[in-house]
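[stage:ingest] chain + small molecule (ME8)
[stage:ingest] validated
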Amino acid sequence: MRKIYKNLAKGDFNLSNESFYVTTPIYYVNDVPHIGHGYSTIIADTLARYKRLTDHNVLFLTGTDEHGQKVEKAARERGLSPQEHADLMVGPWKELWAKLEVSYDDFIRTTQERHVKAVQHIFQKLYEQGDIYKSFYEGWYCIHEETFYPESQLVEGCCPECGREVEWLKEESYFFKTSKYQNQLLEHIKKNPSFIQPDFRRNEVISFIEGGVQDISVSRTTFKWGIPVPFDSDHVIYVWFDALINYLSGCGFLIDEEKYRKFWPADVHVIGKDIIRFHAVIWPIMLMALGIELPKKILATGFWTLGGEKISKSKGIVIDPNRLIEEFGADAVRYFLLREISIGLDGEFTYEALVRRLNDDLANDLGNLVHRTVAMMIKYFNGEIPEAGELGQLEVSLKNEALELLQVVSESMERVDIREALVQIWRVVGRANKYIDEASPWVLAREGKIDHLKTVMRTLLETIRIIGILITPVMPDTARKIWEQLGQTNFASVTFKDARKWDGLVTGAVVKKAQPLFPRIELG
Ligand code: ME8
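[stage:predict] done
[stage:export] tokens:
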């Protein structure tokens, strides 16, 4: 990743054969997905697709978190065993990811044997080396968050995260010596500024650690739905200790040495800000204790809110992604979520904002550019792509902007600034639309200046080709449709490298008239 960035800085875009490993949180199966879950997954998917298009060997892992008291309770309420419940609930997640064009390479479930084995192995190892010890736990526990909270953190006696009632638990428990590694972790975070992103989250984590990290309870005895502690069958392993290990068990740990070597350490864990302490404190400490390299980046997103409140199924504040996809299409939803807010910040979800983006950016700007160009091609050249003659000043200017886009977009993507990448692409979309008006192909046609008309149309088509390539990570389906409308056939083998050359279209290929990419939506 870094290598490519250096090359880019020199203006020399080099493809690499490096591996890239990106993960999403694994989602609880106590409920069905909402748009907030979709958000982290779409970010990870966009990064995975971008890396594949720059010739990386990608492992994109998502999955489900199936143990714990919360899942056990949800199963009981439905009269099912926790396993039956999990088996049923995993369906809606996989279906949503298919509808959202999420191209995961592997889907891990924490009830799978490969995972259970890894978790027990790690628990045993840490116990044997003295980093896990037995004691008693007393404290306030929120089942919903599956987290213990010190009294000082409670808000009016309730869970500081979700506001639910907490219960006082006293039980025998195994503890993980988190405190032992806090200084080592602090040093790592300070030495590696990009380890926790965005920066303001990094600073929060630093102050949290400086405040002192307590050893955490990593086993429970009051319920059964969890991975048994290998040497003490009265205890099940704490669901977060279990869940975090998915990032290892999902990349071959213990079972596929070659894969594990190839992909670990992970390049990016995409997570929401609510689970940053688990990922930026507990998880790295678990890895340090095991002597395993830390992930390169923890990327914490903000929340999508509705009426100022976090979108959350359990709070009854939900946007059903399935309905949005049916109404607007997966690509429009993906574009909206990634374009509307910068990663890390919260965003208020409104139907109006979504429709505005769809109408302005997608229907008017991109959709019209493609539609007008294809229509003129059919009208003037029966759709057959002509050779360009000598480029005039306007053409050279558009060509240069289009060719520079690869570098600009790649730099933004390397910084995981997907929004900026889109802003830059749309700058050229706007430029191309303006060029149509400036070059006025209809005047050239009327005046019989056919050679120049050919040059104008080819310039537009090449610009659209480049835009089509660069939007692929965010809007894979639209990119494919653009490719087809351009009469090109090799979409599956296109990579970002193809955006650095001009004249990439097959001359003589015939563009295809199609439905507008994005129909305008009238606000009711
Ligand atoms: O926490 N806006 O799972 P979970 C943006 N199983 N993102 C949101 C969101 C919102 N309104 N609501 C949820 C868990 N998310 C654990 C994770 S990982 C080893 C274990 C996203 O089903 C966000 O990424 O509660 C958040 O961190 C994740 O969903 C939590 O999903």
